[in-house]
Amino acid sequence: MWKKFLKKSGWTDIIVSLIFIVFGIMLISRPEAIVSVISILLGAIFIVMGVLKIIDYYSNGKQDNYLIAIATVLILVGIIIMFCADIILSVFRILIAVWIIYSGIMNLQTAIVWKDYKSRLWLVTLLLAIVTIVVGVYILINTGAILQTIGVAILIYGLVDIIESFIFIKKVDNYLD
User: Fold this and answer.
1) What is the rounded CA–CA span in Å between residue 154 and residue 149?
2) Taking the complete model, does pTM exceed 0.85, yes or no?
3) Whether 75 contacts 47, CB under 8 Å
């Protein structure tokens, strides 16, 4: 009984991992389209929640005035998410890129200090600092870089999880026989 349950659980994990892999591939290949779909869905959820708060307000005999305020905020947030997702994503991308470039510059400075102290690590630190700056500039220039990176991470997670699930299913056979 347990063996069958555990095997079924392993196969369910594989199916979920395959969904993650497909989502990761979609983020890598079409990040802007995915953001549009997610922003529309998320915005619609906020708007529906706001409308439900308005219905709740009127069904309670207009007693809870804070429900109108919450409903208004929810609807406005929903509209902003639906129609300004690109702006929100761009600001987020720029902030991350600037932070990465800043970190690279600080590491560059550290490499120079290490060179003055005749440390052998200065060259490695210099190379990593340059790579960090290049990655920051790439993210700053490429609008889909953040989403593509997340897509790669999701894809790797899905692949690793599938491998772990197959190992789990195999171990169930070995331990419960």
Assistant:
1) 9
2) no
3) yes
pLDDT of residue 78: 94
pLDDT at 5: 60
Whole-number pLDDT of residue 160: 82
pLDDT digits (tens, 9 = 90+) for 85-94: 778 777 877 8
Structure tokens at 79: 């509209």
Number of alpha carbons in the 13 Å side-chain half-sphere of residue 27: 19
Q: Is 139 exposed, middle or buried (0-12, 13-18, 19+ CB in 10 A)?
A: buried
Inform me whether the pLDDT recorded for 152 exceeds 70. yes
Q: CA angle, 137 as apex, 151 and 145 as ends, to 5°?
A: 15
C-beta separation of 97 from 136 below 8 A: yes
Q: What is the DSSP string of the chain?
A: -HHHHHHHHHHHHHHHHHHHHHHHHHHHH-HHHHHHHHHHHHHHHHHHHHHHHHHHHHHTTS--THHHHHHHHHHHHHHHHHHSHHHHHHHHHHHHHHHHHHHHHHHHHHHHHHHHTT-TTHHHHHHHHHHHHHHHHHHHH-TTHHHHHHHHHHHHHHHHHHHHHHHHHHHHHHHH-
User: Residue 121: what are its φ and ψ, rounded to 5°?
Assistant: -80, -5
